[in-house]
Design brief:
The structure is a single chain. This protein is mainly β. The protein contains 6 helices and 48 strands. The strands form 10 sheets. It has a 22-stranded antiparallel β-barrel. The chain has a 5-stranded mixed sheet with strand order 10-17-18-14-15. A 4-stranded antiparallel sheet has the order 3-2-5-6, with no helix packed on it.
């Protein structure tokens, strides 16, 4: 009898254990935008108020089904009902008022912003939504150290700490990524302004050559992170807006998800007649992102973006037209009805695998294409580009001398093929609007551009408060040019050019003074190879002596929070020394050659402050202020016997101020006002001509209200409220041809407005 009793007791005990095991739920917490693992997440059980905390791999175990709230500094808390025992994926979205606690994507090592040994800025989804829905320039220009020229919606140039300022048309010497897909071509050119702003969750900007894993770009890296759907979230939304200069825009958005798979689909259609003549703009975009959590060790994600753009080009005008007739287009561009007609797309897939608790890997494969047709006054350009690439890296952690060591190493292989042809432009004035007419072929090139980046980066925890960061990037770049146009007397420009291998090291250290304030310092090397067009000599031969621009970046900084977390601040001082400065020397109206002409020295100060003036009330008021001081000079610069040493670097403002106020209410009303001051900008290397300083003020009002599953909203924005007259982009060192005055200026838009409504339904 006693044996039977014992047997029954054991049986009941095993059944009890089995039932308990079935209720035990495991899961992982991640950042919804960059999929960073989130440790130290507090998980509150509403039933008994017990708390468990996610480990350093973001993993957690809860004992029973029920309602739980997940909270962590730097992120909005999220409450979830756990209804089954399946593996649980929990995604958290960043909280703009606690950015220093957010996990950043600079090296994929699971690092909070406040601990990084580099100057990094985050543009949050709130920053994007509070700005206009048309142009990314005002959003980026709030970031200290960045200045984005914008001559038109399709004509832009981004500079970071003065790098890229000497590029005449478009952005160069700055690397950019959409998720893990390079947006920078093999030619070193970058275009980000065509992406639909409503598809972006946040933007991470790494200044200087501080990111070994992203190619050690001389100016830095702009990392665009697309919006993604929460798992178990299904909703649709739409928005329509219109405004000045014939602006109209429609957006459709859908989120489809279950417990392990989610997808976001966004379509947009934008039209703008433009402020100036020959300034019409039409763009359609289609963006898809998806996440697939296959099991506890494997994740897949997809991203695709397609842009169909046709935009006319008014180009730059001279001083007299800028003063008296700013709506005019450049005469030749207006007569030719010059435009760009572009179709571009990117597609990428990423696989993440957890080998063990200490080692994981991520591999991304991507492809992109661009087809362009651009009638210009001097010729018609037709081009096609197709790119393929792969990025793969191992990420892990171990112990070294009894201290934690995080590490990552991997590589990126990239190849694109670019075909370009030019034709005569037989543009005609009659009948009116005829514009460009294609004539005989003038050139036919095929370029193959390849590079390989190998990278290694570590974070070594010298103590609980001090972090040592060491990185190394290896790059090998080569171009192959095939000249398929060889009529009698034409020089064959075919050739191959391989640059010397470039090693770019990085060393940084950060130290937490206390839980709120940290200091950092770093030394890093960066480079920027010339484009094929810059390697061509006037006789058509490849200049094998031209070298990449290289530079060393030295910086010290501090960031943190004060006054009970109401004040966020960041201060950085830096020096960037650039050698083998590439100069675009004009040899004809449509011809430039590259020359290594000297050195520049970039000394600067960047500060940013954000203060929560009112909180925990029916009204929340945030204020912000940033200041950038640029002391950028030619250190040693002689071009065609003219010595410009000691002059201010062309194309960069002397200083920039941004200030603003953001107000939100619990009843759904919100507003913000932004003020920007831009100092004088030198237009010529001789510093004989400067663009005047200017100030802009923008304002936006909105209202949003939720009725159970339905959310309705409306907004109204006004840009350049005080109708300031200014040059929004400059064509530096413009030359005069045929006795005409140089065309330096792109007029900025006068006062203008936009308004719209949006609707969202969850089901």
């Amino acid at each position: 009898m006693q044996l039977k009793t014992i047997s029954l007791f054991i049986l009941f005990y095993l059944v009890f254990i089995a039932v308990q095991a079935q209720d035990e739920i495991r899961g992982k917490v991640i950042d919804i935008e960059n999929n960073a693992i989130l440790s130290d997440v507090h998980i509150l059980n509403h039933a008994d108020s017990t708390i468990v905390i996610s480990n350093e791999r973001g993993e957690f175990v809860i004992a029973k089904l029920g309602t739980y709230t997940f909270s962590r500094l730097g992120y909005h808390h999220r409450t979830i009902q756990v209804l089954d025992s399946n593996f649980l994926i929990v995604q958290l979205r960043l909280k703009p008022t606690e950015l220093n606690e957010v996990e950043v994507s600079t090296n994929r090592l699971g690092q909070r912003l406040k601990n990084t040994a580099a100057t990094i800025d985050i543009v949050s989804q709130k920053d994007i939504e509070f700005a206009n829905h048309i142009n990314i320039a005002p959003i980026l220009n709030k970031v200290p150290g960045i200045y984005m020229h914008t001559g038109a919606l399709n004509t832009n140039r981004i500079t970071i700490r003065g790098i890229g300022a000497r590029n005449l048309f478009g952005t160069a010497k700055i690397r950019a990524y959409f998720e893990d897909i390079p947006l920078t071509t093999g030619n070193g050119e970058t275009t980000i302004e065509d992406f639909e702003l409503k598809t972006l969750a946040r933007i991470e900007i790494i200044k200087g050559a501080n990111s070994s894993i992203y190619g050690a770009g001389l100016g830095g890296t702009i990392h665009l992170l697309p919006k993604k759907s929460f798992v178990k979230s299904n909703e649709i939304s739409s928005e329509f807006s219109f405004g000045s200069f014939g602006f109209q825009k429609g957006i459709l958005e859908a989120d489809i998800a279950n417990a392990k798979h989610s997808a976001k689909i966004v379509y947009s259609n934008t039209h703008n007649d433009g402020y100036r003549d020959n300034n019409e703009y039409d763009r359609q975009t289609f963006t898809v992102t998806s996440n697939h959590f296959l099991n506890t060790k494997n994740d897949l994600s997809f991203v695709a973006s397609y842009v169909d753009l046709k935009a006319f080009i008014p180009s730059a005008i001279n001083q007299d037209d800028f003063n008296t007739n700013p709506t005019s287009a450049a005469f030749t561009w207006g007569r030719a009805r010059g435009f760009e007609d572009t179709k571009r797309g990117i597609f990428g897939v990423s696989w993440k695998h957890q080998y063990s608790k200490n080692v994981r890997h991520q591999t991304s494969m991507f492809t992109s294409f661009r087809n362009g047709y651009e009638p210009r006054p001097f010729n018609i350009l037709s081009e096609k580009t197709v790119a393929l690439g792969i990025r793969s890296r191992l990420i892990g952690n171990t112990r070294f001398l009894n201290h934690k060591l995080d590490w990552t190493f991997g590589g990126e292989l990239f190849r694109d093929t670019h075909r370009s042809e030019t034709f005569e432009n037989l543009y005609q004035d009659f009948p009116i609007g005829t514009g460009s007419v294609q004539g005989l072929r003038l050139s036919n090139f095929k370029e193959k551009r390849r590079y390989v980046n190998l990278f290694f980066e570590t974070n070594y925890h010298l103590s609980t408060k001090t972090l040592l960061s060491v990185g190394l990037n290896f790059n090998r770049t080569n171009y192959n040019l095939d000249d398929a146009f060889n009529p009698v007397g034409n020089i064959d420009q075919s050739g191959t050019y391989t640059f010397d291998e470039v090693l770019s090291p990085k060393l940084g250290i950060s130290h937490e003074l206390n839980s709120n304030v940290s200091f950092y310092s770093s030394i890093s090397h960066g480079f920027s190879p010339p484009s094929i067009s810059e390697t061509l000599l006037p006789d058509g031969q490849i200049n094998t002596d031209i070298q990449p621009e290289t530079g060393w970046n030295f910086e010290v900084g501090t960031r943190g929070t004060l006054i009970k977390n109401r004040l966020q601040f960041g201060i950085a001082a830096f020096r960037l020394d650039v050698r083998n400065l590439l100069v675009a020397r004009r040899t004809a109206q449509d011809q430039f050659i590259g020359v290594n002409a000297g050195k520049t020295q970039h000394d600067g100060l960047e500060t940013s402050f954000r203060y929560r003036l009112v909180k925990n009330k029916p009204v929340t008021i945030d204020t912000y202020l940033s200041y950038t001081l640029n002391n950028f000079t030619f250190k040693d610069f002689v071009d065609e016997q003219e010595d410009f040493s000691g002059n201010d670097l062309t194309g960069v403002p002397s200083d920039v101020v941004n200030a603003g106020l953001e107000l939100t209410t619990k009843i759904g009303l919100y507003t913000n006002i932004n003020f920007q001051y831009v100092g004088r900008i030198p237009i010529t290397d001789s510093n004989s001509i400067y663009a005047d300083s200017y100030s802009l003020t923008h304002m936006k009002f909105g209202y949003k209200q939720t009725f159970k599953r339905l959310t309705l909203g409306a907004f109204l924005g006004v840009n350049n409220i005080f109708d300031e007259k200014y040059a929004s982009q400059l064509l530096i060192n413009a030359s005069s041809f045929g006795g005409n005055a140089p065309r330096y200026f792109y007029p900025g838009n006068p006062v203008n407005y936009y308004t719209g409504i949006n609707i969202n339904y969850s089901f």
